């Protein structure tokens, strides 16, 4: 039985509802997901299927967008300087030849410390300060600054330690005070206990036989860079899909993968980043958005062994996933299929969540058709 589509769209965005309904009709009967978008600070799409409007989901690496927005705010304030060495803020990071690395290169996935030789425990993965302490002593897996690779499980902890050293507050505390609370965002780095009943456990991937064959053909040795980056080299290897289902992860909200959000929360955060929302000025000035959305690492990613593009932390969404978006679009996807971004040219802020882990991981394929439908409608306004 096809899921009913709930929610509203603004005039001119009726085609988005049709596109969402068409996609959902081809999905499994147990599909759950949400779609939300703003244009120039006005909510224009608010749809969901198989769930309710207030459900919260683990958004995996879409969490990183919140972390990088905190860093961008602190750079804009002058509290952080991109071309200072990381050791200016965090002296212990100099161990094992990392002393020359700048904050700019750290954010651009060029540090070479995608994990540790022996991996992390669940308690360490949940606690950014413990992760940072382990990473400070780790010998990098490539010469820092000479190449790049996705720091999947640790980039939020690395940036967070710089934030903590510079401000005396955790990245999560700065996010709560300056971003989540002022805009009442349903996007949490540390889910409060009273909100637990709204959380929907992540369901495992359900690949087709052909998709499973592709997964089985992918090298999974525990000491490959990819396995180290995703903590599969630990004594108890991490099952990525189950991470947000761990109460400890949800409670602490590690800044790489621990966020819990609705599509409204994802889209609302990016809308606030680039647009006036509710009478409040944009969080970021245009020059800051341009700096963080500029290509910094582009080409062969040593971890994913594929072409990837990063700005200052943010994925270059217009290159990696949605080429119809404007240059300088900032955003980040999550392993379960979530996607969120802000396109400063069209004023579009987009958020998508789904419950079941998508194949093959990262932004789910439906994001391309959904985002394009919204972008087309936005440009027609």
From TrEMBL:
Record-linked PANTHER family: BETA-LACTAMASE-RELATED, BETA-LACTAMASE-RELATED DOMAIN-CONTAINING PROTEIN
Cited Pfam families: Beta-lactamase
TM stretches of this protein: none
Domain Beta-lactamase-related, chain residue ranges per copy: 34-370
Domain of life of the source: Bacteria
Example of a GO MF term: hydrolase activity
Protein name: EstA family serine hydrolase
Annotated source species: Streptomyces swartbergensis
Keyword entries, A-Z: Hydrolase
């Amino acid at each position: 039985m096809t899921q009913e589509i709930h929610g509203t769209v603004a005039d001119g965005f009726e085609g988005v509802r049709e596109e969402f309904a068409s996609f959902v009709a081809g999905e499994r009967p147990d599909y759950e997901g949400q779609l939300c978008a703003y244009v120039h600070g006005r909510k224009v799409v608010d749809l969901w299927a198989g769930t309710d409007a207030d459900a919260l989901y683990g958004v995996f690496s879409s969490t990183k967008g919140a972390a990088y927005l905190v860093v961008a705010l602190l750079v804009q304030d002058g509290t952080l300087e991109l071309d200072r060495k990381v050791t200016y803020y965090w002296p212990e990071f100099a161990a094992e030849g990392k002393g020359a690395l700048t904050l700019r290169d750290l954010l651009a996935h060029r540090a070479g410390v995608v994990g540790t030789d022996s991996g992390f425990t669940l308690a360490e993965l949940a606690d950014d300060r413990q992760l940072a302490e382990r990473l400070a002593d780790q010998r990098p897996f490539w010469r820092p600054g000479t190449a790049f690779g996705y720091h999947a499980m640790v980039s939020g902890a690395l940036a967070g330690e710089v934030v903590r050293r510079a401000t005396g507050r955790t990245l999560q505390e700065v996010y709560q005070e300056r971003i989540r609370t002022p805009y009442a965002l349903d996007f949490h780095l540390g889910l409060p206990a009273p909100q637990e009943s709204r959380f929907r456990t992540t369901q495992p991937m359900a690949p087709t036989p052909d998709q499973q064959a592709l997964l089985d053909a992918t090298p999974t040795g525990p000491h490959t860079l990819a396995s180290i980056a995703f903590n599969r080299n630990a004594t108890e290897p991490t099952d990525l899909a189950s991470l947000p289902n761990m109460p400890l992860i949800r409670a602490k909200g590690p800044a790489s993968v621990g966020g819990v959000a609705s599509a409204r929360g994802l889209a609302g955060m990016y809308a606030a980043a680039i647009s006036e929302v509710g009478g409040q000025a944009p969080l970021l000035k245009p020059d800051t958005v341009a700096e963080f959305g500029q290509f910094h690492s582009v080409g062969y990613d040593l971890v994913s062994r594929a072409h990837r593009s990063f700005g200052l932390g943010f994925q270059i969404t217009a290159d990696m996933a949605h080429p119809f978006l404007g240059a300088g679009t900032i955003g980040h996807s999550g392993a379960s299929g979530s996607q969120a971004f802000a396109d400063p040219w069209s004023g579009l802020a987009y958020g998508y969540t789904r419950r079941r882990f998508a194949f093959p991981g990262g932004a789910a394929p439906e994001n391309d058709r959904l985002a394009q439908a919204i972008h087309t409608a936005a440009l027609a306004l």
